[in-house]
């Protein structure tokens, strides 16, 4: 199971990233634990200055903007 955290406030982009991970994980048959983090000190603790950010298994893999579905697939398969 992959532990995924989406870092960001109440923006629509963060919700879009959450939905993308849910749909891609379902399509690929990958079990995920998905959590949204909106606490700014926690986000800054990851070193993310631009949201949405994505942390997979404790490692920041993306910051700023919505990642392409192909990128999400690669992260989920990796």
Write the layout of secondary structure elements.
Layout: E1 2-7, H1 12-28, E2 32-37, H2 40-45, E3 53-56, E4 59-63, H3 69-77
Parallel strand pairs: 1-2
Antiparallel strand pairs: 1-3, 3-4
Helix pairs in contact: 1-3
Could you please describe the fold and organization of this structure?
It contains three helices and four strands; from the N terminus they run βαβαββα. Helices cover 41% and strands 27% of the residues. Helix 1 (12-28) packs across helix 3. The protein has helices at residues 12-28, 40-45, 69-77; strands spanning 2-7, 32-37, 53-56, 59-63. The protein is globular and about 35 Å long. It has a four-stranded mixed beta sheet. It has one domain: Glutaredoxin. It is of the alpha+beta class and 78 residues long.
What's this, in brief?
This protein has 78 residues and is α+β, with helices and mostly antiparallel strands. The chain has helices spanning 12-28, 40-45, 69-77, and strands at 2-7, 32-37, 53-56, 59-63.
| Distance linking N and C termini | 12 Å
| Biggest beta sheet summary | 4 strands, mixed
Strand count: 4
Helices and strands: which structural class? alpha+beta
CATH level-1 class: Alpha Beta
**Helical amount:** 40-55%
Mean pLDDT over the full residue set? 95
Runs in which pLDDT lies below 50 for 5 or more consecutive residues are none
Number of domains: 1
Major beta sheet, strand line-up: 2-1-3-4
Q: Output the CATH homologous superfamily.
A: Glutaredoxin
Rough outline? globular
CATH fold name, please? Glutaredoxin
Amount of beta strand:
25-35%
Order of helices and strands: EHEHEEH
CATH architecture: 3-Layer(aba) Sandwich
- Rg, Å, rounded: 11 Å
The tally of helices reads: 3
């Amino acid at each position: 199971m992959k532990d995924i955290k989406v870092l960001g406030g109440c923006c629509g982009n963060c919700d879009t990233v959450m939905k993308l991970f849910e749909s891609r994980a379902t399509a690929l048959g990958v079990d995920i634990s998905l959590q949204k983090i909106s606490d700014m000190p926690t986000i800054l603790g990851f070193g993310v200055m631009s949201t949405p950010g994505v942390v997979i298994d404790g490692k920041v893999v993306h910051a700023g903007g919505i990642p392409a579905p192909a990128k999400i697939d690669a992260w989920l398969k990796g």
